[in-house]
Structure formats: C-alpha cells, structure tokens
Amino acid sequence: MNHLIKYTYLSIFAALITIFLKLIAYFITNSVGLLSDAVESLVNFASALIAFFALKIAQKPADKNHPYGHSKAEYFSSIAEGIFIFFASLTIIFSAFNRLFDPKPLEKIPLGLLVSTIAAVINFFVGQTLIKVGKKNQSITLEADGQHLMTDVWTSAGVIFSVFLVDKTKILILDPLVAIFVALNILLTGTSLIRRSLSGFMDEVIDKKDLEKIEGIFEKYEKKGLVFHEIKSRKSGQKKFLSFHALFPNDFTIKKSHDLIYKIEKEIKKAVFNIQIESHLEPKDDKKSFES
Fold it and tell me: Taking Cα atoms as reference points, which of 194, 273, 205 lies closest to residue 239?
C-alpha cells in the first residue's frame, strides 16, 4: 500500500496546477463555462487530499480492535468525493443561471482556451496513470480519483468547444447552458461514486472474474474426492476475504488433509490478488458436515 501514496502526491500536484491554469482561463475570458471547469478542479484537489489520508489509514496493519485491517477507509474517500462533487455542481448551476438572465460577452477567447487545453492535457495523463495503477492494485481510491480526472478531461473538452462556438457564433447563452450541462454530468459522477462506496460497506462479494478462478480451483480438487460448501466472499477496499468448508474422505489423515488444504489456499492466493482465506476441514461422510 505504501507505494500507492506517491500517486496521491501526483494527483494533488496536478490538481493545484490545473486549478491555477483554469482560473487564469476564466479571468482572461470571463466565461462561466470555464469557471465551472475550474470549480471541478477545486473538487479534484479536495478529493486528492482525501485520497491521501484514506490510503494512509487503509495501510495500517490489523490490530486488536480492527482484526480485518483498516481497508474500508478507502470507501470513506469515495463517499467524500461524491459529496464534494454534489456541492460543486450546485455552485456551477447557481453561477450559470445568473449568467442565463444576464449574458456577458467573452474576452480573449483564444488565449483562454489555450490555457484551459494545457490543463486538460495534464489531467488526461495523470487520470490515465491513476486508473491504471488503481486497477492493477485494486484500489478504489486511486481508481475513483483517476475516473474523476478523466470526467474532468471530457467536460473540459466540451467546455472548450462550447466557448469556441460562442466566439464564432456570438450566441452568449451557449456559455451558461454548457456550464449547466457540465454541472449535471459532475453530479452523475458523484452519485456513481457514492453508490459504489456504499456497496463496499455492505460487504459485496468479490469480483466475478475472481470467483470464477476460485470455482475453477475447487472443481479441480472435487475430482480428487473433496467437497466444498459454505463458500462466502466479500471485499473491503483492496482486500478480499474468502471462507469455505472443505470436506475430505474418511481415509484421509489429518496431515494429508491439512497439506492439501494448504495447497488449495496457496493456489487461490496466487490466482486472486490480495485475498485472505479462512477454511474449515470436515469429514465428508458425516451428515453434520453439511449443516451451516
């Protein structure tokens, strides 16, 4: 987990640069669309800070009061991001509605769009990096931060195009309309992050691909006479948890059964990233072994 912290520094640094660039673009052009873009970067900065502290907490080892670790701290980060996004969208909508009823001409548009484009390019490369690292390490915090940056990139592209159209068509109302559209898009992103994080708090099963790998391993050993039941899984941030009962034939010694279950667990840990396993050995011919 420690190596993931450095990517939050990258996110924080990128957010500070893009805030500065987008605010310059807004003050140069007086475009409420570009202001909406700058507000989203403020949210990115707050989200990056939250991601940093969430990962710091999540990396703490298990202790007496938290025997399964602190990995769920990552879900708090995503929920906080969603809340920040919600309030940011309301701020943008308020500013845009004021401009709808009081349109104002834009200034120095080419220079403003150039500055905003530079900010969008920075966000693109940082966002792609965070998503790649987040998926590889199965960190919802980094992945959410990266997805948020990519949303920022596409909304920036839309805003830049709309401001370009305002410059060419002189239809000033396009500027606040696009700002409102950006705000609604940001709101959808926030809602998605909150929903995903709440699902994590509800102990959802691990990903389908991982379950299929585990089932494949179980099927291999079922051909050797073993039976598996009471198979349960859940995920918590980057960590995954699996529990199951393994039923062995009566002619298996305790050592043979133990060695085989050790081999099974080793195969599962090799196939599924960051998984903690709890297994229970039982005799196959005892009816009580099939009771929950």
Answer: 273
Q: Which segment of 55-64, 114-123, 249-258 scores lowest on mean pLDDT?
A: 55-64
Q: Domain count of the chain?
A: 2
Nearest CA among 242, 246, 245, 244 for reference residue 274: 242
The 10 Å Cβ neighbour count of residue 173 is: 12
Tokens standing for residue 143: 């992945």
Q: Is the pTM of this model over 0.70?
A: no
pLDDT at 83 over 70: yes
From residue 83, give the alpha-carbon distance in Å to each of 16, 71, 186, 197, 236: 20, 20, 11, 12, 21
Whether residues 160 and 76 share a domain: the answer is: yes
One domain for residues 186 and 217: no
One domain, residues 218 and 191: no
Residue 14 shares a structural domain with residue 155: yes
Q: What residue type is assigned to position 183 of the chain?
A: A
Q: Give the CA count within 13 Å in the CB-facing half-sphere of 1.
A: 23
Q: What is the CATH number of the domain that holds 176?
A: 1.20.1510.10
Of 159, 174, 201, the domain-final residue: 201
State the Cα–Cα distance between residues 252 and 229, nearest whole angstrom: 18
Q: What domain range is 240 assigned to? A: 208-290
Would you say residue 135 has pLDDT above 70? Answer: yes
Q: Sort strands 275-283 and 227-236 into parallel, antiparallel or unpaired.
A: unpaired
Section 159-182 average pLDDT: 82
Answer yes or no: do 188 and 222 share one domain: no
Kindly report the CATH number assigned to the domain that includes residue 258: 3.30.70.1350
- Phi, psi (rounded to 5 degrees) for 273: -65, 135
Q: Where are the beta strands (DSSP E) in 225-288?
A: 227-236, 239-248, 275-283
Residue 168 has pLDDT above 80, yes or no: yes
